[in-house]
Design brief:
Largest sheet: 8 strands, mixed
Mean pLDDT: 86
Length: 393
């Protein structure tokens, strides 16, 4: 027997209350609504089910056989729904609290406190697990040190992971957990370069290092670029440079919870804000830019001509403050004839991919990256990159 379309829980709850009390008035008092509201709800339920559930014999009601049958089953169903909602809220709250606990040691620090911030961030990353089936080896990618995460039998292609950290913290070593998870999910090697950080090395040092690492990786097969939070901004800067110079592009790019709009760096608060806030990140970005205008197309994709950019996968934390940033980028990319896939996950953490070991949405997002990568490399086949991009779009 199929379930009727449009069956609403509040109609069912109204019926159960009236059926148990055998009285509209008392049921109305119990639910803190009017008797007329209850009567309308029960009538609506009867119309949905196509049968009479109770007969009104004021001041009482009498259940029909159909009503008795529904009363026997409905309370257990409502209890199951309530239990499911309670469990979901409990798990959701626990996961959010767990993420908050992990980030607490450094979220209060500001990007002005570079050394303490870096130490605290690395301690945070050290709490995240690393998949057992992945091995790591150091590499020097055209002069840039980094780590290569490799599954047991890597499939063709390399992911180039540009880590987040507001351009002032983060490292290849610290991001082993995410690199390992990407290697496991995709079955491919993941290169994380240790690009130079601000303020010691402002723009374009990070782009120079990402550029060198990409050139090295392309010598080993097709490359998919992955930028996490502010690493997504670095990824877009790299794509700008490659397009401008007519150099080989990655076959696609993933922007994971992208922090890509530098405009906040032009309007900083009077006092440095905690590193995890938009203004805190803006302080790190401003130290990276070191006087470069925030609307410079080399660092601002919203002032860049994106034509010729390879296919993009934009993964957004739907409950996070900067959700609109990824959506705006996707809209601009489409307007410039760039193939774009947008995936939105109901989480609030801006770096939710880091928590793949216990956050279901993060594990799902990694599978989304694997699917995106497989599609690109399968499309590539024996054709050259230009043909593959044309087929994909």
């Amino acid at each position: 027997m199929s379930t009727p379309n449009g069956l609403e829980l509040h109609h069912l709850r109204a019926f159960v209350a009236v059926a148990r009390q055998r009285h509209f008035g008392r049921a109305a008092e119990q639910l803190h609504v009017s008797a007329s509201t209850l009567s309308r709800s029960v009538s609506a339920l009867e119309r949905m089910l196509g049968c009479v559930l109770l007969r009104r014999t004021p001041p009482r009601v009498v259940l029909t056989m159909a009503g008795e049958a529904l009363l026997a089953a409905a309370p257990a169903a409502l209890d199951a729904v309530d239990d499911a909602v309670a469990a979901t809220r409990s798990v959701g709250g626990e996961l959010a609290a767990r993420i908050a606990r992990l980030g607490a040691p450094f979220e209060s620090l500001t990007c002005a406190d570079v050394e303490p911030l870096r130490v605290a961030a690395e301690r945070h990353y050290a709490l995240l697990p690393i998949p057992d089936e992945v091995t790591f080896r150091p590499v020097i990618a055209h002069g840039v040190p980094g780590l290569m995460a490799e599954p047991e039998r890597p499939a063709p292609g390399t992911l180039l992971l540009l880590h987040g950290g507001a351009y002032v913290n983060g490292s290849a070593y610290g991001f082993r957990s995410l690199a390992g998870a990407l290697a496991t999910a995709t079955g491919r090697s993941v290169l994380t370069p240790d690009y130079r950080l601000a303020p010691e090395h402002p723009f374009p040092a990070a782009v120079d290092d990402a550029h060198a690492a990409h050139a090295w990786a392309t010598g080993h097969g097709p490359v998919v670029l992955v930028g996490e939070t502010t690493g997504a901004g670095l990824a877009l800067s790299l794509l700008h440079r490659l397009r401008a110079r007519g150099e080989p592009l990655p076959i696609g790019a993933v922007l994971a919870t992208p922090w890509i709009d530098p405009s906040l760096a032009a309007d900083l608060p009077a006092r440095p804000a905690p590193s995890g806030t938009p203004h805190g990140v803006a302080l790190g970005v401003s130290r990276y830019l070191d006087g470069v205008p925030v609307d410079d197309a080399r660092i601002d994709p919203f002032h860049d001509d994106l034509h010729g950019t390879p296919p993009l996968l934009v993964q957004i934390a739907g409950l996070e403050l900067r959700t609109a940033e990824g959506e705006r980028l996707a809209a601009r990319a489409r307007a410039h004839a760039v193939p774009v896939t947008v995936e939105t996950y109901p989480v609030a953490a801006p770096s939710f991919h880091l928590y793949w070991s216990f956050l279901p949405e993060a594990a799902e997002a990694l599978q989304g990256i694997a699917h995106f990568t497989d599609n690109l490399i399968n499309k590539l086949g024996s054709t050259d990159q230009t043909q593959a991009m044309a087929e994909f779009s």
